[in-house]
Design goal:
By secondary structure, the chain is mainly alpha-helical. The protein is about 60% helix and about 5% strand. The protein contains 11 helices and 2 strands; from the N terminus they run αααβααβαααααα. The radius of gyration is 18 Å and the shape is globular.
């Protein structure tokens, strides 16, 4: 099984979709409070106003309130720690080890690099993955592969992400995927992406590969919209 960037995006979307369903199940749609009025009796971080969140995401006022109610059920302090985030991913992939991949996703979400993910940071990513443009989604996956923030991808950075994904999937992959196989698969994809053979992949090359090679890209994003609504 060769894991392409589009498959990675779908995997991430599925995980965030499951998180969202968990949050919605634990929320109460019968009330309509502001975020600062929702109190569980625990000292916590309080997010910015609903108006600001509505402007910075593509969620409605009601959707944000519902997600926040559920968010506080699992994260009463108002932020998600790295350990809690790993715990959520581990629930989705009990047959593998999600430690490394969860940390990579967590670091992507922790924009202010304070060691925790606030509700705003969580909501912005959910909004982008569910209702962002194709370019926005591809840019986010590109940035995930770009571990050092250099603005381009190397084969080693892609191998590191690829290895963490297969490690997370664990026994879900049949037959089991070994390290040498991961390197072979990722290198093969990297060569196809690197259209000018200069040893690095720019976002333009990455996007061109995803759009041209991934035959089901538009069906994928239609599915994403349906999944999150």
């Amino acid at each position: 099984m060769m894991l392409t960037p589009m498959m990675l995006l779908r995997l991430i979307v599925i995980c965030f979709g499951r998180v969202r369903m968990i949050l919605w199940r634990s929320s109460d749609p019968s009330t309509d409070p502001d975020l600062e009025d929702i109190d569980l009796g625990v000292a916590r971080y309080v997010p910015v106003s609903l108006e600001v969140l509505m402007k910075s995401t593509k969620f409605s006022r009601k959707e944000i309130q519902l997600i926040y109610c559920g968010f506080k059920q699992d994260c009463p302090t108002g932020v998600v720690s790295a350990d809690k985030f790993r715990e959520l991913y581990s629930q989705f992939f009990p047959l593998g080890d999600a430690t490394v991949f969860a940390r990579q996703i967590f670091q992507m979400m922790d924009q202010d690099m304070d060691g925790s993910v606030s509700f705003e940071e969580f909501l912005v990513v959910m909004s982008m993955l569910s209702r962002g443009s194709i370019d926005e989604k591809l840019q986010w996956v590109f940035n995930l592969y770009d571990l050092n923030g250099e603005g381009f991808l190397t084969v080693d950075s892609m191998i590191e992400i690829g290895a963490s994904i297969y490690e997370m999937l664990g026994k879900y992959t049949d037959p089991p995927v070994h390290e040498a196989t991961v390197r072979e698969h990722v290198t093969r994809i990297f060569i196809k992406m690197d259209s000018n053979a200069d040893g690095i992949v720019t976002f333009s090359e990455f996007k061109e590969f995803c759009v041209n090679v991934s035959f089901y890209i538009y069906r994928l994003f239609i599915w994403v919209e349906l999944f999150f609504h």
